[in-house]
Amino acid sequence: MPKSYLDHDTGGAPARSATKMASHRIASRHETTPQSTGRGSSAAAHQILSRPTTKIQESYPFNSFFELMPEAHRLLIEAYNEVALIERTYREWFQKFKNGDFDVEGKDHSGRPKIYEDVELKELLEEDSSHTQKELALTLEVTQQAVSHRLKSLGMIHKQGNWFPYESKPRDVESRLLMNESLIAKTQKKRFLHLKVKR
């Protein structure tokens, strides 16, 4: 990763600033495409992205941006780790870029209704109460902070590697632990059989 990319002064908004930078980097890689202006520098890419909507659509193949979206997201995660936003957010921003709107500060999204998040979160914990916050966030396509907030709102606490309702009775806790031990044993057995078949 070039030093200029990692050391860029983002002014307290690393993920948002990095999105524009990733867009410019992707633009520079397409300097040989038929629709490209032939200028591969970041400054040239910035000029292209700064033009009015109609000029942008005429001068640059924005479909290429969406094709390389996973790569842009990977670059941002490498640079900012957990500070980077989820891929869905970047896709929304790229759609705005395509329409000539480069304001990534914009309006805050309320996201999906909380009731749906809570229902899905409960179902995931019922299936496997040993899920980490990061795993839950990836499955629900929300931030880890959002998962943490919802878990607290639902009165869930983390004990011995599992999530339990705050007022769980000892026998409920024991039952959940036995269930998880059983799931782990089944997983290990499957792996053992898989390795045995390979041999």
From TrEMBL:
Superkingdom of the source species: Eukaryota
Biased composition (Basic and acidic residues): 1-10
One Gene Ontology MF term: DNA topoisomerase binding
InterPro entries: Mos1_HTH, Transposase-MT_Hybrid, WH-like_DNA-bd_sf
GO (cellular component) term, any one: condensed chromosome
Region of interest: Disordered: 1-48
Listed GO biological process terms: DNA double-strand break processing; DNA integration; double-strand break repair via nonhomologous end joining; mitotic DNA integrity checkpoint signaling; replication fork processing
Any matching Pfam family: HTH_48
All copies of domain Mos1 transposase HTH, residue ranges: 71-101
Protein name: Mariner Mos1 transposase
